[in-house]
Amino acid sequence: MKWIVKPSTLSGTISIPPSKSHTIRALLIATLADGESVIRRPLLKGDGASAIGAAKSLGAKIDFNGDVLKVKGVGGNFNSGDELFDMGNSGTGTNLFSSAAALGSKFRRFDGDSSLRSRPFRPVLQALKGLGVTYTLEGDPKDLPFTIQGPIKGGTTTVDGISSQFVSSLLLSCPLVKTGNTTFTVYNIHEQPYIEMTIWWLKKQGIKFDYASDYSKFHIFGNQSYTPFDMEIPGDFSSATFSAAAAALCGKAVTLQGIDFTDPQGDKGVFDVIKHAGADVTIKQNSAVINGLNTLSGKEINLNAMPDALPALSVLACASEGTTSIVDVAQARIKETDRIKVMREELCKMGADITERPDGLVIRQSSLHGAVVHGHDDHRVVMSLALAGMIAKGETVIDTAEAANVTYPTFVEDFRKLGANIEVIED
After folding, report:
1. What pLDDT is recorded for position 271?
2. Which fold has domain 2-17+235-425?
3. Looking at residue 116, what is its pLDDT?
4. Which of 13, 263, 301, 374 is the most interior residue, by most CB within 10 Å?
C-alpha cells in the first residue's frame, strides 16, 4: 500500500486509539489470572491482535463482543494452550509473553514476520536462563525464531535495560513463580516510564515486591496470583504523538480526545516538548487542544524515556527555527528499524538538513519538498513521513503504508477528518 500526501491544514476533533502498551499488559495479566476478566476498548488490530493470539496460545479463552473482550484465564495451569506463538510484528508482545510462556514446563516456539525476526530478544532470554529456563535460537545469529522451556525457578539473575520490555517481562511473570522469590538487577536502564507502567499494573493487582528507586534492582515474592479485572483501555499517547506533532506543524485548534493525563504512559511528555517548542497547548484531564499557528523553535530534546517519539519529533524539528538536538535515545536503533538512521535517510530525500549521531539526531530548520520515500515497514516511520508530506511542497509518496495498522489502524480516517490530504493506493 502507498500513501500520497500533499500539503494540508488541520483542524477539528479526533479520538486517540487505545494504548498498545496497556492492551498487551491487560491481555497478559488476564490470561494468567484465575477467572474471567473484561477488557473494554482494547487495541484489536496489529500488535493487539498479536497479543490476543499469544493469550490464546497460553490457553486463555477469549470471547469478542464488539470492542469488549472477555478473557478466561488459565490460573495456575501454565502448561495449557499451544506450542506455537505467531507474534506477527509485535516486539512488545514477544518480550512480555516469552517469560509467561516459560512459567510452565511446556515447550514453546515464538516466531513472527521478517521485521520481528530482525529485533533483539536475547537479553530477556538470557535473564530467564539465569532462572532455570532453557532456550534455543533457531536463526542464530538472529534472535527469532526461538524456542523456550521452563519452568522459571526462583533465584537471582541480571537483565539488560536497554529496552524496558526486557525488565517488564520479568516483572509480570516472576510473581507467579511457584518455587521461591526472584531477585534481579538491571543495568543500562532506559525507558523508565514503561517500567513504571508495569509497576502500576502490579500494584493494581496487589502484587508484593520491592525495588530500588532507580529501578536497578527488584525483589519479587513468588507464589502469588493475578485476579480478574474489568478495565477500559485508555488512549495511546504514543499514537497521540502523531496528531499532536501534526497539529503543531500545520494545525489550528486540533482537539485530541480520549487521553488521560493521569495515566502512567511516559509518552504524554511529548505534549511538553511541543509546548516548549512554541505550540499553543491546552491540557485537560482527558483531552488536549493544540494550535500550531505559532513559530516553532529548536531545542535539545532528551528522548530516553520516550524513544517512540523520535520519528514524529524529527519532522517537527525540520520546521523549527535554529537547530534541534535529539539526544540520549540510542535504543531507537533496535526498534522495528534503526529509526535514527532511517529518519535521517528518508527526511534527507525531502531536503532535510540532518546529522546522525550514535544516540540521536541534529536537525537544522529545513524547507521540505515532496519525494518518493520508503516506510521500511515501520508504523512509526510511515506515519511520521506522512506528517512530513503535510508540510512539504508538492507530493510525497510513502510505501509500505499498511504498517500503520500495527498501532494506528484508523490513521488515514482520523487525519482526513482533520483535513489531511492523503490518498491511499492499494498495491
Report:
1. 97
2. UDP-n-acetylglucosamine1-carboxyvinyl-transferase; Chain (3.65.10)
3. 95
4. 301
Torsion of CA 243, 246, 252, 255, to 10 degrees: 10
Cα 228 to Cα 37, 65, 150, 256, distances in angstroms: 5, 18, 25, 31
Candidates 415, 407, 363, 398; CA nearest to 251 is 415
Coil, strand or helix: which one is 421?
strand
263, 308, 377, 378: the active-site residue: 308
Please name which of 382, 378, 398 lies closest in space to residue 336, comparing C-alpha atoms: 378
**pLDDT score, position 285:** 81
With 0-12 / 13-18 / 19 or more C-beta atoms within 10 angstroms meaning exposed / middle / buried, residue 340 is buried
The pLDDT value recorded for residue 427 is 80
Give the model confidence (pLDDT) of 151-167 as tens digits: 999 999 999 999 999 99
Report the CATH number of the 20-232 domain: 3.65.10.10
* Start and end residues for every CATH 3.65.10.10 domain found in the chain: 2-17+235-425, 20-232
Whole-number Å distance between alpha carbons of 318 and 129 = 45
The confidence score (pLDDT) of residue 200 equals 97
- Helix, strand or coil for residue 179? coil
The pTM for the full model equals 0.95
Residue 285 has φ and ψ, to the nearest 5°, of -60, -40
**Alpha helices, DSSP H, located in 177-258:** 192-204, 237-250
The low-confidence residues of the chain, meaning pLDDT below 70, are: none
pLDDT at 103: 98
pLDDT tens digits along 74-125: 999 999 999 999 999 999 999 999 999 999 999 999 999 999 999 999 999 9
Ramachandran angles phi, psi of 244, nearest 5°: -65, -45
Q: What is the DSSP string of 105-159?
A: SS-EEEE--TTGGGS--HHHHHHHHTTT-EEEETTTTS--SEEEE----SEEEEE
Angstrom distance (rounded) from CA 157 to CA 296? 46
Is residue 260 part of the annotated active site? The answer reads no
Distance CA 392, CA 394 (A): 6
d(CA 202, CA 211): 12
CA gap 167, 74 in Å, rounded: 23
Coil/strand/helix, residue 344:
helix
Cell reading at 411 = 490513521
In whole angstroms, give the CA distance from residue 305 to residue 294: 27
